Amino acid sequence: MTKYLEELSSLYSPSSLEAKNADRPPHQAGPSLRRTGRLIKDRLGLLVEELDDMIDDCSMRVDGMTIATQWSQGDTTVDIATAAGRHSSQMRSIALVTMIFLPGTFFATVFSMTFFNWGSQDGAIVSSYIWIYFLVTVLFTAVTLA
After folding, report:
1. Where do transmembrane segments lie in this chain (predicted)?
2. What is the domain extent for residue 111?
C-alpha cells in the first residue's frame, strides 16, 4: 500500500501536474487534482491503519490460542503426574506385601518336601521342629525388608 501511495504522490506531484496540464488554464488543472489526490492518499492511509489494527487483532487472537493450548497441556501434564504418583504408591504397596509373604511361602514349600524326615512323635500333627521354619522365615523376611 505504501508503495502505491508513494507512486501516487510522485505521479500527481505539483511539478508533474504542471507539466501534464500546461495546455490547460492554471485555475482548472491543479487544485482539483491535488485535492482529489490528497483525499485518496488520506483514505489509503486510513485503510492501512485499519488493516494494521486488524493484523494486530489477529496476532492477539493467535497468541491467545497459543496460551490456551499451553494451559491445557499444563493441566494434562499435572493430571498425568498425579496418576503416576498414585500408581507408584500402589506398586510400592504390592511390592511390600510380596516382600512380606514371599520368604514364608518359599520356606513352607521347601520344608514340605519329602526329603526332610521329620519323624512324628506320639501322633503329633505338627513337628517339634516348627520353630526352625518360623526362625528362618522371620530372619529372611527381615533381611528382605531391610
Report:
1. 94-118, 124-145
2. 2-145
